[in-house]
Amino acid sequence: MKYQHQKLAQGGWEKLNFFEQMANIGSEVERGISWRNKKNDLYSQKAIERAFELLDLTIANQQKRKKLKELTRLREMLADYFFGQNQYSSTNKFWQKYFYTFNYAAIRSRSKHH
């Protein structure tokens, strides 16, 4: 498989803690939302594909079933929102709030290690 995030796919992803991984996924989702708002469907789709790539790397490395269940549900809901019928009634604001918590936690975890 050809990854857009080559270095991360080759082992760099595991070096990030869970919060950092989720924050990075959230950054791609935010880009997807931004491009969608600008009516650029191609760039939006590419950003979401990158988010899925990172999410799949996170899922592949999960040992804890509790997180695995949430991550697979997250993948399902993102796919529904960006490519499906939005049966879960997600909004841009919902996704921004969801990922904001991981950004905050990633920043806090980094500051504890420095």
Describe this structure as you would to a colleague.
With 114 residues, the chain is mostly helical. It has one domain (6-112). The protein contains five helices and no strands. The radius of gyration is 14 Å and the shape is globular. The relative contact order is 0.16.
Layout: helices, strands, pairs:
Layout: H1 6-12, H2 18-37, H3 41-60, H4 65-83, H5 92-112
Question: Which structural traits does this protein have?
Answer:
5 helices, 114 residues
Brief rundown of the structure:
This protein has 114 residues and is mainly alpha-helical. It has helices spanning 6-12, 18-37, 41-60, 65-83, 92-112. The longest helix has 21 residues, at 92-112.
Shape: globular
Question: Could you tell me how far the N terminus lies from the C terminus, measured between alpha carbons in angstroms?
Answer: 36 Å
Low-pLDDT residue spans: none
Going by helix content, strand content and strand pairing, the class is mainly alpha
- Helix content, binned percent: over 70%
Cα Rg: 14 Å
- Series of secondary-structure elements, N-terminal to C-terminal: HHHHH
Number of domains: 1
Mean pLDDT: 89
| Main sheet characteristics | none
Kindly state the number of beta strands. 0
